[in-house]
Structures are given as structure tokens and as C-alpha cells.
Specification:
heterodimer, A: mainly alpha, ABC transporter involved in vitamin B12 uptake, BtuC, two-stranded antiparallel sheet, 15 helices, globular, B: 2 domains, four-stranded antiparallel beta sheet, AAA+_ATPase (chain B), transport (chain B), ATP hydrolysis activity (chain B), ATP-binding (chain B), nucleotide-binding (chain B)
């Protein structure tokens, strides 16, 4: 075939391009691997929380970034994942990560239910439905306090050997490796799960199904005429997105060991959405970057500021968001991409022709 | 038996009658043109056949199936593919990926298998990519395959839609004003291309077109519409001589 720029050709790029493509990833993994040894335990705990947020944002990104359905209810789905995990472990003695799988399944079906209205309404109206879910969820937790513990919280306990007898004790993620502290073990465990989820999402996006998500987002009629079952795609994406958010919530539950309704208000939903937008919707890695940015802001930068400024954190975050949206509407990844495009066109290459560079 | 048979189809939008009991049929491997002044109902008819509009009366049979029983996303399975008058490409995808979207219904790979990137998914992806590249190459679009499908010339975009429709391996290809926005020379080239593609892929082509020279040169059959009704039907020569057609285009003589 003449002149076709094919997948094979892009795999045969020179060693320099290859190094440019793989290098940053190797660097990233080295940094991620040494992080828990360079920071005190409380920071490592925070990193674990950021990862649960990144997972939820990854799920939301599939739905909002790639499929074009806006949800401001993912905090509730995160919460459903967390509470499903807590209740299954405490009440039914389900093994810890077995509960995570169950939470993903439960959230998948809840997501499908929440997504059903999406077949009739879209855009702002769908966002309102998910907003209602986000607002209702903490109220429901307090309403059904018999199983959720209400505002007093849910202590997650499991039967454990203690002083020679089985007792209900708070769950803990204990390191099985001698040289690794519990928080470091938890970090690597969460990191592994996070990486797997992001890689699987990338696989999906780069597949026939991923293309169909984008087609439904950009032009429903064209998608339908090409044989894509638009309704099925929308609903399944909602379910999948919810399941991933649920996994994030489940890890949060395992991490915290206790759950309170106040952790799962509309504010959490907005933070997840912020992570997606700040990182860059419709880029796979964007939500992870966004989650880190959010974490850095709320757990590190704000804490360094004088006490008088602390109460204004929401205002500061808001101003920063507005600035970011003005400077880089595509988020961090979008900003980097347009810089690359600028650079490439200055060198005479075609602008922005390699979306692969940041996945 | 005709491949496509439209019988007594009417479409009403509120009080407006967009199509009024329209009937015509299309034989296999024919090129048939729908012509008529703006607002004649040509695109409306396209939208009925591709199941975007629900007709208020009439029947549409395609290749032994009652098309009106089939949901929009299934007509591609039966072998009907189309392009759109005002372009309906997917800006978030590359040119190649847009063409691969056309092959959606001709390929496999569900959500779970794709997530795990199982070997069958990979080999299917290679097959579909190869096929899409072949089609792009055939239509002279190989150069732009990896470009985002925004910011390309209008004629190129039209051609990409053409490629996407071909990727669906249709029996009936419906082209909605494929020559609009093209230069004079390009229109002539497109006419030749449509004939060649019809022969190579054994297609039946139904097109809406305003470029009379192209319509007259390539179609075996012309259906003339005006104000939602069919006013004439026949070979290009027959239609061109029909006084009703001349009246519709030039205004009725006093």
C-alpha cells in the first residue's frame, strides 16, 4: 500500500522516538516506587487516598470524557462502593478484596440504574439527575442507620485472632513483607490496583468499543447508522464507570476502616469531576494527574499556608480552577499536548498528529 | 425482485407533509439518483430508509426484509450504509478510526474482551485496521489516515464519509450530496469513482445530487421529486425531456 501511515509504521519509529515514548513512563515508575520510602507515614496514607480518588476519576472520565455523559454523582457511587465493602466485611465476613469485587458488581448495576434516564435525557438534564443522586446519598445513609451506622459511622470489623481467640476487630491491611511497613505495603497494593485499572481502561479506549464511546459522544446519528447500539453503549458505559468508581470507594473503605456519611457528600462528587477536568478529560492518564494536583493542593499546599488563609481554601481552589480553564481548557494533558503541537509545527511537523504521546 | 422497494411512504412533521405517498424501486447494482429542488424531500426519504425518521405511512422493503421493523442501528447489518449531507464525522477520532467506526457492525469484540485485550480482539483489530487502510488507499486518502479528522478540506471530509460507508460492506450505499462543495474537476472524478466502486464492490447506489452533469452521466435511473411527491421517473434521457421536470426546475410556463 502506498504511503499509508499504519500502526506497523508507528511501531517502527526510530530509537529516539521510542526512548521519548518509553522514557517518561520508566521515570514515572521509578518515582512512584521510591515515594513511600522518602515520605513520612502520614504522607504515604495521603498518597493512598489520592489513588482511590484517581481510580474514581478514571471511571468518571470514561463516562464524561469519552462518552460525553456528565455525572456529578460519582461521589455517591464511590460511597456505595465503600459502604458495600464495609457492610459485606462487617456483617457477612466477606474477605477484604472479595468485598472489593462485590462492590464493583453492585456499583455496576447501580450505575446502570442511574444511567437509565440517560436514554431519554442528556447534557445538563442528566447532570441534574446525577446531582440528585449525590445529594440523596448521605441522607439515605442516615436514614438506614441500622446497617450503615448513620452519622455515628460504620466501623469495619472482621473476625481476627486476638490473644488466642477469634474476635471482631477493626480491619487492617498488614504487610506480609518484613522490610515493608503497613502503610508502604498498602501504598504498593493500591498502586498495583490503580495501574491495572488505568491500563485496562486504556485497552478499552483503544479498542472498537472505545471508538464507539467517542462516536456516541460526538455524533449519535452517525454512530447509529454505523451499527453502534447507542442506548446499549450509553448504559454499559454508565455501569462500567460506576463499577470503577466503586472500586475506588472500596479501597477507600479498606484504607480508612471506618466510614461516615459526611465523607460522601456532593463535595466529593465535585472533587472527582475536578480531578477529571484539571487532568484533562479524554486522556487516559489525565484523571490521575488531576487527582494528584487536587491532593497536592488540599493536603500539601493549603496546609503550608498560614492558618488565617485555611478557611478560604475553597475560594483559592475556585480561583485556581478558573485560571487553569482559561490557560488550558483541555486540562494539564491538553495543555501539554498543545505545547507539543506548537513545538512540532515550529519544527515543520504536522500539528498534534500524535495523540499517542500521552496515551 | 428489486433490492429496495419504497411503497406509498408518507412523512408528516406536525402539519407539514414532507413526503406524500412516495413509491419507487431500485434494482440490484443500479445507480439511482434522487433529484429535485431544495425541500423536495430527498433527504427526508434518506432518513426514512436509514430509520432516522419514522414514516407516518407506507412500507420500505430491502433485500427481503421489512426495513421499518428494524431499529436504526441494525439496518447496517442488513447492508444499508449512508453518508450525510452536512457531514457526520467523529471529530474526536482520526481519519482511520472514523473509517473503522464504519466497520463496527462488521467486527467483533465486546467490552470485557476489549478491556483485557484478548488475542482474538488484537487480531480482529489488525484485520479491521488493514481493511480500513485498504479502503482509504482506494479512495486516495492514505496520506491523511492518521490525521485528526478536523481541519481537512471539505472534499476530503466528504470522501472520508464515503470510505466509512464502504467499510460497512454495504449492499446499498446511500450518498447524500456527495459532490457538494467540490470543484468542477473533482465532481467529474467523483462520478467516475462512484461507478468504479459500484463495480468493484457490487454495490447498489442511491444518491441525492444537484450536479446534473454527474447525475446524467452515471445513473441508470433518475427519480425526480418536488414538494414531497415523485413527479417523474426513468432513464436520465427520459427524465430530462419530461415537461413536468422542466416545469419544476424552471417554473411552470404561463
Amino acid at each position: 500500500m502506498s504511503g499509508a501511515v499504519s500502526a506497523e509504521q508507528s511501531a517502527q519509529r526510530g530509537p529516539r522516538e521510542w526512548a521519548l515514548k518509553v522514557g517518561p513512563w520508566i521515570l514515572l515508575f521509578v518515582i512512584l516506587a521510591v515515594l513511600p520510602f522518602q515520605f513520612p507515614s502520614f504522607r504515604v496514607e495521603q498518597f493512598c487516598f489520592w489513588m482511590t480518588l484517581a481510580i474514581a476519576a478514571c471511571g468518571l472520565n470514561l463516562l464524561t470524557g469519552y462518552n460525553g455523559q456528565i455525572s456529578v454523582g460519582h461521589g455517591a457511587l464511590f460511597g456505595i462502593g465503600a459502604y458495600t465493602t464495609g457492610i459485606l466485611i462487617t456483617e457477612f465476613g466477606v474477605p477484604l478484596f472479595g468485598a472489593t469485587v462485590a462492590a464493583a458488581v453492585v456499583c455496576f448495576f447501580v450505575g446502570i440504574l442511574v444511567g437509565l434516564p440517560a436514554l431519554r435525557i442528556k447534557g445538563l438534564y442528566l447532570a441534574l439527575v446525577t446531582l440528585a443522586v449525590a445529594t440523596l446519598f448521605p441522607l439515605l445513609l442516615e436514614q438506614f442507620s441500622a446497617i450503615t451506622g448513620g452519622s455515628g459511622g460504620l466501623q469495619i470489623t472482621s473476625p481476627q485472632m486476638y490473644r488466642g481467640e477469634m474476635r471482631e476487630r477493626p480491619i487492617r491491611l498488614e504487610s506480609p513483607i518484613a522490610g515493608l511497613a503497613n502503610d508502604q505495603w498498602k501504598y504498593f497494593l493500591f498502586l498495583a490496583i490503580t495501574v491495572v485499572i488505568f491500563v485496562l481502561s486504556r485497552n478499552l479506549i483503544k479498542s472498537r468499543v472505545g471508538r464507539s464511546l467517542v462516536a456516541v459522544r460526538d455524533n449519535e446519528i452517525a454512530a447509529e447508522s454505523s451499527g453502534i447500539p447507542v442506548s446499549k453503549v450509553k448504559i454499559l458505559t454508565f455501569g462500567l464507570s460506576a463499577a470503577i468508581a466503586g472500586i475506588g470507594g472500596s479501597l477507600f473503605a479498606l484504607d480508612q476502616g471506618q466510614l461516615y456519611p459526611s465523607s460522601f457528600t456532593i463535595v466529593l462528587s465535585i472533587y472527582i469531576l475536578v480531578a477529571v477536568v484539571v487532568g484533562g478529560a479524554s486522556s487516559i492518564i489525565g484523571p490521575a494527574i488531576g487527582a494528584v494536583f487536587y491532593g497536592l493542593f488540599s493536603d500539601v499546599i493549603i496546609q503550608q499556608m498560614p492558618d488565617r488563609i485555611q478557611p478560604a481554601r475553597a475560594v483559592i481552589l475556585g480561583v485556581l480552577l478558573i485560571l487553569l480553564m482559561l490557560l488550558a481548557p483541555g486540562g494539564v494533558v491538553g495543555g501539554v499536548r498543545s505545547l507539543q503541537a506548537n513545538f512540532a509545527s515550529r519544527k515543520g511537523g504536522s500539528p498534534g498528529s500524535d495523540p499517542d504521546l500521552i496515551m | 425482485m428489486p433490492l429496495l422497494e419504497v411503497r406509498d411512504v408518507g412523512v408528516r412533521f406536525g402539519g407539514v407533509l414532507a413526503l406524500e405517498s412516495l413509491s419507487f424501486s431500485l434494482e440490484s447494482e443500479q445507480i439511482c439518483a434522487l433529484i429535485g429542488p431544495n425541500g423536495a424531500g430527498k433527504t427526508t426519504l434518506f432518513n426514512v430508509v436509514s430509520r432516522i425518521y419514522e414514516p407516518s405511512q407506507g412500507q420500505v422493503r430491502f433485500d427481503g426484509h421489512d426495513l421499518l421493523e428494524v431499529p436504526a442501528h441494525k439496518i447496517m447489518d442488513l447492508g444499508v450504509a449512508r453518508t450525510f449531507q452536512n457531514l457526520a464525522l467523529i471529530p474526536g477520532l482520526t481519519v482511520l478510526q472514523n473509517v473503522m467506526i464504519g466497520a463496527y457492525g462488521r467486527s467483533r469484540g465486546g467490552m470485557w474482551a476489549s478491556t483485557l485485550r484478548l488475542p482474538p480482539v488484537r487480531s480482529e483489530e489488525r484485520r479491521v485496521t488493514g481493511r480500513a487502510l485498504q479502503i482509504l488507499d482506494r479512495l486516495g486518502l492514505a496520506e491523511v489516515a492518521s490525521r485528526p479528522c478536523t481541519g481537512l478540506p471539505y472534499g476530503t471530509l466528504k470522501r472520508i464519509e464515503f470510505a466509512r460507508a464502504l467499510a460497512a460492506e454495504p449492499k446499498l450505499l446511500m450518498l447524500d450530496e456527495p459532490a457538494s462543495g467540490l470543484t468542477h474537476g473533482e465532481v467529474e472524478e467523483l462520478g467516475v469513482l462512484i461507478q468504479q466502486i459500484r463495480d468493484e464492490f457490487s454495490l447498489t447506489v442511491l444518491l441525492v445530487e444537484h450536479h446534473m452533469s454527474m447525475v446524467m452521466a452515471i445513473s441508470q435511473k433518475v427519480v425526480v421529486m418536488d414538494l414531497g411527491r415523485k413527479i417523474s421517473e426513468g432513464t436520465p434521457a427520459e427524465v430530462a425531456d419530461d415537461p413536468r421536470v422542466i416545469a419544476a426546475y424552471l417554473g411552470a410556463p404561463a
